């Protein structure tokens, strides 16, 4: 496998999907956010309902998934602004 050294540290976000509920046997097991990067493909972030740390600081995994989604959108806007300045 040949590494593309020019883009190895470039994690520009191309697309992010709205958080989806993951259901298994009729039970909600978590929420997932799918992020697509320009040079590194897609990544699926999963936030489990059984993770106790999501209930300490956040109101639950759905809240964490929404916050992650908004953060990726913010990064996309920031990248677009940076590209407009360099043109």
> Radius of gyration from the CA trace?
16 Å
| Largest beta-sheet characterization | 4 strands, antiparallel
How confident is the prediction overall: mean pLDDT?
A: 91
**Share of helical residues:** 25-40%
Number of strands: 4
Q: Decide which structural class fits the backbone.
A: alpha+beta
Overall, the morphology is elongated
Number of helices: 1
Can you walk through the features of this model?
- The protein is 30% helix and 32% strand.
- The N and C termini lie far apart (33 Å).
- The protein contains one helix and four strands.
- It has one helix at 61-86; strands spanning 13-16, 20-24, 27-37, 41-48.
- It is an alpha+beta fold.
- Strands 1, 2, 3 and 4 form a four-stranded antiparallel beta sheet that branches.
- A hairpin with a 3-residue loop joins strand 3 (27-37) and strand 4.
- The mean pLDDT is 91.
- It is elongated and about 50 Å long.
Structure summary:
The protein is of the alpha+beta class.
Keyphrases for this structure?
elongated, 87 residues, 4 strands, alpha+beta, 4-stranded antiparallel beta sheet, 30% helix
List the helices and strands and how they pair.
Blueprint: E1 13-16, E2 20-24, E3 27-37, E4 41-48, H1 61-86
Antiparallel strand pairs: 1-3, 2-3, 3-4
């Amino acid at each position: 496998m040949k590494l593309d050294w020019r883009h190895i540290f470039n994690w520009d976000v191309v697309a992010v999907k709205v958080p989806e509920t993951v259901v298994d046997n009729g039970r909600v097991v978590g929420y997932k956010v799918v992020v697509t990067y320009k040079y590194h493909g897609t990544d699926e972030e999963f936030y489990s309902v059984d993770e106790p740390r999501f209930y300490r600081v956040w109101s639950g995994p759905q809240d964490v998934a929404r916050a992650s989604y908004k953060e990726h959108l913010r990064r996309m806007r920031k990248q677009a602004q940076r590209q407009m300045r360099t043109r």
